[in-house]
Amino acid sequence: MRIAILGAAGRTGGTLVGQALERGHEVVALVRTPTKMAAGGSRQVEVRKADVTVASGFPALSDVDVVVSAIGISKGDAPGALVAGARRLAAANVRTVWLGALGSGVSSRSGGLIYAGVMRMFVGSELAEKSEADEIALKAGATVFHAPDVTDGPLSSTRSVVPLAELRRPLLPPRISRITLASLLLDEAETGRHGNGIVVPLT
Question: b vs e for 118-140, b when ≥16 Cβ sit within 10 Å of the residue's Cβ?
Answer without folding.
Answer: ebeeeeeebbebbbbbbebbbeb
